[in-house]
């Protein structure tokens, strides 16, 4: 790997474009050629995972709204497919609808380091443009691997959340690079597109604070749509704000560490295998990633606690991020509100721990149902649960060795008689270092479970066969990555929506 040091430069420096981070990211993408076999396997897993959670979310309102907006932009041939409808639409709108469907349940992949990310969010815009431009499955795989390489590098090297900047700013750069790899664009074109994409998708983290709204699902879809539009503009020869990262009025100077910014971004050398996607991991449970191990821990603790009405308090000792973003350290009263939105509840580890402790399981719909959140005994237990930051868990969260990195915590349960019950879990069971790491069979099982009753068994088989042979698919075969569903149920859902502009 090559260390690229990124800092602010005054305009008078006339920083050469080859020395700018946007150029270096673009160069990684355009030099992505022969793919590592393990990276290809993981990319296929991600395609399966995305379809699983997208289909499971088809009748949810934000997904239906995004789909309605997209289908108002029908394309003549070729266009791109949208989950849940036979319509072909303009590719940026397909990316919008499919990206929202993938993100809605907070149930697909994650990568955590200096910042946060869901690398699978790259796939909807890449797949949409692949369909629209007649690319093959092998082209799509190259694009996914390149995009993940860039996103993981940025997430390792630049912390956005410390400055309350939403993580989709890194996503838009990664998707743009993936599109460059997909279309085999010149580095100059990708460089210009990266700068526009970052410039237009930088937003605050208020989308993940307090009463969290449905925009949480739309945010990555917006980044993907913007990336496609940025690439289209750059392909037409237009330029963008430069240098977007290093400029004295740019990203680092005003949104991150300021004029004294000094970041190190590790990028592969020419010819080095693109393996960053292998550092990413998926979710077994539909909740924010730091809650994955906490759910598994709660399930394990059920055997030790006895009747839950005797619990006096629960303290979760965990990392800075878990405490301050999804724990009581966020100081968000909404995280303890039984009437809170689903999006807020999936970012409330006290709620999640309470329900998992009571039920011994987690379900992407039932665990968030309003009647479930308002159950009196649940509310009573929920409000006894707090989090604290433990420096050791924070250190483990940021450990440079992926084998030692930990995203869990330690639970201390105090009973009314003073008895203490303690247990800890470093990583979720489904994590690569967990008790039951996800493999291809687990991804296929997740797909079958989430699409049961929506996709027939025969169509499940057809989708899995297409995904597992992605490297061999021709351009027309990419339609097979969209499982056939009950079109009438989806159409009835869409018909119930209020009308917008389109």
From TrEMBL:
UniProt-listed InterPro entries: MmgE/PrpD_sf, MmgE/PrpD_sf_1, MmgE/PrpD_sf_2, MmgE_PrpD, MmgE_PrpD_C, MmgE_PrpD_N
SUPFAM superfamilies listed in its UniProt record: 2-methylcitrate dehydratase PrpD
Domain called MmgE/PrpD N-terminal: residue spans: 28-262
Lineage: Bacteria, Bacillati, Actinomycetota, Actinomycetes, Kitasatosporales
Source organism of the structure: Streptomyces shenzhenensis
GO molecular-function term, one example from the UniProt record: lyase activity
Protein name (record): 2-methylcitrate dehydratase
Pfam families: MmgE_PrpD_C, MmgE_PrpD_N
Domain MmgE/PrpD C-terminal: 285-470
Family of this protein: Belongs to the PrpD family.
